[in-house]
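INFO  loader      accepted 1 record
INFO  loader      residues=221
INFO  predictor   begin
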Amino acid sequence: MSRLFALFRRELTLAVRDGGEIGLALGFFVLAVVLFPLGIGPELEILRRVGAGVIWAAALLAAMLSLERLFAADHRDGGLDLLVLSAAPLEGVVIAKCAAHWATTGLPLTAISPLLAVLFDLDGAATLLLLVSLLLGTPALSLLGAIVAALTLGARRPGILTPLLVLPLYLPVLIFGAGAVEAGISGAGARPYLLLLGALSLAALPLAPLAAAAALRQALD
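INFO  predictor   done
INFO  writer      dumping tokens
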């Protein structure tokens, strides 16, 4: 556990020190969300109806932009080989890297989302549902993205393969995340959607590291 915590802290330090990819993801998220009200127009009813879906779709795409830094840098400098040969289980290494990815991508996106919800005239209750849905769903984005990042490791054009592979995995998270806010606004009840989001993240927690670790071993053979 101490080795995995040290790895988590190292990943956080490197991400904060570099800052470029975090800023890119946050900048893309903000710009993508801001452009939609400008393109749709000032009709508040339409904005309220599409707001949750727009914010969730932008968060999904922003998280996808930073997937390459999960394993690519360590693969290039040989650090991934050392991690595989270390005493720490490779599945635990994947979890530590996913936790750092979520802390530097998913968590900042979630923190900014209430400010962007104002652009779509979402009320306090809808904004709170949006915040809770992102907190429950964004861990699944990091965990599922780790599988694709491991599968595309060493590929000639990972920038093309990654969206094709990761978007089908992200679709359930997007549907349940946006659906929770829309159900709350319509009065249908957001609880089932939130429970499904939490279930997706909980299911991905043990399964995604196993799949990603197997893909990493295959890539390094």
